[in-house]
Amino acid sequence: SSGDDQQSQTLSKPTFSEVQASALVESVFGLKVSKIQPLPSFDDQNFHVYISRTKDSTDGPIEYVLKISNTETSKHPDLIEVQSHIIVFLKAAGFPTASVCRTKGDNTTSLVSVDSGSEIKSYLVRLLTYLPGRPIAEVPVSPQLLYGIGRLAAKLDKTLEKFHHPKLNILHRENFIWNLKNVPLLEKYLYALGENQSQKIVEQVIQLFKEEVMTKLSLFRE
Fold this sequence. Notes:
Subcellular location: Cytoplasm
Distance between the termini: 20 Å
Number of strands: 5
Largest sheet: 5 strands, antiparallel
Order of helices and strands: HHEEEHEEHH
Main location: cytoplasm
Radius of gyration: 20 Å
Low-confidence stretches: none
InterPro entries: Aminoglycoside_PTrfase, Kinase-like_dom_sf, Pseudomonas-type_ThrB
Shape: globular
Structural class: alpha+beta
Domain Aminoglycoside phosphotransferase: 38-212
Strand order of the largest sheet: 1-2-3-5-4
Pfam family, one: APH
């Protein structure tokens, strides 16, 4: 999510084993792991975690997602804190979001330091409840489904207008490649498409964006 080049992503992405990830869940969150498996991720590391029931925990969820942030994001704990508050806010507003789990120290995240041999690296760790379901990519697309997605996105947008946090401005990151107003930043990745029709189409879209959108950005609600 740092938007940096591929090399820096490789250097900063966590490489915890399943055994190490299980130990994190138990030491940081006090939960006994019965099964753990990796989940897809871009530049962080995610695990699907199943916990064992104990005499003291006969209710509550048994499936979680352990998220280990990359070394770059881990330098900005306020960013993760705001994200966690947004999740809690949306949950309270009735959205089907995950729940943020507290650490044994009653925090939403924990900074874990690991000695890699050549240096000590720090990673922000958090635990969310697991949301069952299927990705949209695996479901037949219908007008009703697309309408539902659009309606949910609009409702999400309207609800987030009411969200307040003293550190909210940390979300406004310059040159953040996932921000849609930063489409021109994609130019340096055009080579990944190779010399073909797709590359030409993307080049045209970026050029149109510069001419038709960038010149009017100040007129749009953000």
